[in-house]
Amino acid sequence: MKRMRLLAGLTALAMTAALAGCGAAESAAPAQSETPAATEAPAESEPAPTEAPAETAETAAAAGALRVAGLKGPTTMGLINLVDSAADGADYGFTLDFSMYGAADEIVPQLVKGELDAAAVPANLAATLYQRTEGAVQVAAVNTLGVLYILEQGDTVQSVADLAGQTILTTGKGTTPEYVLRYLLTENGLNPDSDVTIEYYSEATEALAQLQAGAGSIAMLPQPFVTSALSQVEGLRVALDLNAEWEAVAGSKLVTGVLVARSDAIEADPEAFEAFLAAYGESTGQANSDVEGTAALCEEYGIVAKAALAQKALPACNIVFETGDEMKTDLSTYLQVLYDADPASVGGAMPDDAFYYGAG
User: Fold this and answer.
1) Distance from the CA of 113 to the CA of which of 34, 65, 215, 345 falls in 20 to 30 A?
2) Predicted confidence (pLDDT) per residue in 191-246, tens digit
3) Within 10 Å of residue 344's Cβ, how many Cβ atoms?
4) Domains (ranges, CATH) in the chain?
5) CB-based contact 19:222 (threshold 8 Å)
6) How many helices (H) and strands (E) does the chain have?
7) Cα separation of 317 and 241, whole Å?
8) Quick one: which H or E segment has residue 266?
9) DSSP label of 185
10) Is 50 exceeded by the pLDDT of residue 35?
């Protein structure tokens, strides 16, 4: 990997399978030749990150660097071209100190204490941080739309309504995947508690193992696990793209990941932050136009275990860069659905307008 100036706390974990900034795959998971490193929901704990002694958060701040963190998985895919170019010495008008973690709970305390300036995190975590910091953290961009898909080993499911009477194997009970699934079922006239059976597992790898074992023929999984599953389970197909299903009933886009930033970091150098956003947008465009090159960087930086898997998964990971009013429309609709399901999932209250950086 090219040399990066990293903050203290850079994790050097080599994950073979995880869900949403998740823990390692359990022993029940089958052996896999291509296994995704992570996706972003739900977050589970990782081993404590090791320290990078060359530079601390304090010395980075003193040098005027923008201290940015990412999670292994789709929410960092759009950023990685910028990270790599900055590591090569590209001049963007700001200095980037980038660190990457396996779980969101490693990032949260650093943002709260001001040891990080910005981070790519799950969307509902952004709202929670806004409440927890009393408005000290804002959302600046949507970087990932929905990564959830309904998979079927067969050809029965052509619509959400076709899930009636079926068993769905999935993960994320009590977190955003459950709320999204229940919302879509309800909006399509199905009672999530009586019209379908939802079997929850602790990790996506476990749900995939159960699918392989014949415990069911239908599963809801996130990318890049979807790509991995399609290569491992004979006859498996993508039955429903939950992005399309969400847009059909909500009238907005399904959101997975966002960029948050501390307000004091933005105010300390607004021009540098705007330059960062512009460079991030360009990096996202490159991730979508140069899939092969971006996939190689995803492996190099540990975002996904294998470049071949990343190359197949990237087009379906819905990497975007939404700012301003578009960001606010999509994110606020998504957060309202989560709030209605469980207010605690967004920090106990819906964020006000000040949460949305750059929106009217």
Assistant:
1) 345
2) 999 999 999 999 999 999 999 898 999 999 999 899 989 998 999 999 999 999 99
3) 12
4) 57-146+254-355 (3.40.190.10), 148-250 (3.40.190.10)
5) yes
6) 14, 11
7) 11
8) helix 263-268
9) H
10) no
